[in-house]
Each structure stands twice: as structure tokens, then as C-alpha cells.
């Protein structure tokens, strides 16, 4: 239940849905003709807030200068088109009840009994005004002028756009989108080193060698060697000796340079695929006048 002060502050307040999404500015408050209780509020919706949608006040709550209704933004925007300038008829109210899933026979959330209920809805648009069964109350000239001027500025009716997330802009809105800016950066990917160590292996080499062997040479006695043959005793003991020589392999080692090794770099070109999520804005036209003509 709203207090009188809260009811007076509803007009011009910002309405939010149950998920915290902004719906629009509150334009009017309608009272039940029988119970004199606030029952409906109208909220400026549609493109630039040109349309007014009726929203049940049941279940709503006041939060500072804002009001939070129990329905989501889409449900409010899809509410049946009802002329907010006149008294609600029974047919209009029944359509609104069906749209919001309320029981019209039981009076919705307010408990007013009877199916032969009268039309509801004195409009509470000015401070200190109470609902009556005579129909909608009109705003006084000064109060209506102030409210209309303020509404026009808020709703963008004077050639200006209304940005729901910031200040008013001009008569056009800017559509933006995110784009990927792709480049490259150079960073250290690793290091390569040259390291020298000693490995021992066994090698075999074929080496040609020579040696001397004893060969006995015999020659017959001839006139040429007879003198040498009879020189000395006729019979005696004698010994002759010869030195035999041979070659043996000799192994020696030496360190010799065989090659030079260094580290270098080369650039290899390849293509990699990168991706990320980007956002873009899309603009929809909500033409309530065209919908009513259809």
C-alpha cells in the first residue's frame, strides 16, 4: 500500500521492471472508482517514450524517487493500447486484466468483488487530487504545463533524443559496434645454446709393416771363392750372427680443427587465427501509431 506522499511522488518517477531494467517515466495514476484506491499507472514506453502503457500498481514498491513494478519490461511494452486521455472502459480494463494475468471478477489484487463493477480510474496526476467515480481528474493549467514541459524534455518531444543511460542528445541516435584491432608483439619464446663435450670412440687403422727373416744361402766351391774357403783351419768350430729388423705400428694422437659452429636466427612466417567476442548496437523502430492502424 502506497502512502499519500508516495502517491504524489509517483507522477514523473522512473519505473523499473522486476529485473531492474528501466521502462520509462510515470505519466499518470488511475484510481478505482469504487474503492478510491490507486490501481494503475501509465508509463511512457515505445520510441522516445511516445506511447503510454498501463501497468498494475499491485505488487509495486517505491524505492526513493523510483517505482519498481512486478512485471518485466517486455510485458509492459506489449500491453494493449489504451487511450490514456480518457476514463478506462470496462472492455479496456478487461483486456488489461487478461494481459497481466489478473482475475477481473475478483478485482485483481485489490479484492473488489463483483463482475458488474463500474469503470475504474480517476487519474491522479496532480498533488492533492483524489479519485472519484466521476471520471478522470484534469490537471490544473499551471501543474499540467509544468508536467508537460518536463515530460517533453524527458521524453525527447522537442527535437531531442532521450538516452535511457545518460543525458539527452540530438534528434538522431548513434549506432556503435566493437571491432577487433589485431596486431603483433615481440616477446621471448625461448633460448638455444651451443654446448661442446668430449666423446671417446675406438678407431682401427690398417698400417703396412715389414720385417727381416733369416735366409740360408749356399754356394758351391769354385775357383773364384776357393781361396776364402781354405782360409783358416781345416776343421774348427765357428759361429756367425746376423741382426734381424722389423717394423712395428706406432700410434700417436694430435688435435686438429675440423669445423666451426655458431648460432644464428631466421624468421619463419606463418598465419595464426585469433578471435574474441564483439558487441554491436542494433536500432529497432517501435511505431505505436502504425500498430494501432493495423
UniProtKB/TrEMBL annotation:
Gene3D superfamilies: Photosynthetic Reaction Center, subunit H, domain 2
Spans annotated as Disordered: 107-176, 224-250, 268-294
Biased composition (Low complexity): 118-130
Compositional bias per record (Basic and acidic residues), positions renumbered to this chain: 135-163, 241-250, 268-282
Domain DUF2382: residue ranges: 173-285
Residues annotated as transmembrane: none
Domain PRC-barrel: from-to ranges: 5-74
Pfam families the record matches: DUF2382, PRC
NCBIfam families xrefs: YsnF/AvaK domain (TIGR02271)
PANTHER family named in the record: STRESS RESPONSE PROTEIN YSNF
Protein name: PRC and DUF2382 domain-containing protein
UniProt source species: Pseudonocardia humida
Taxon lineage: Bacteria, Bacillati, Actinomycetota, Actinomycetes, Pseudonocardiales
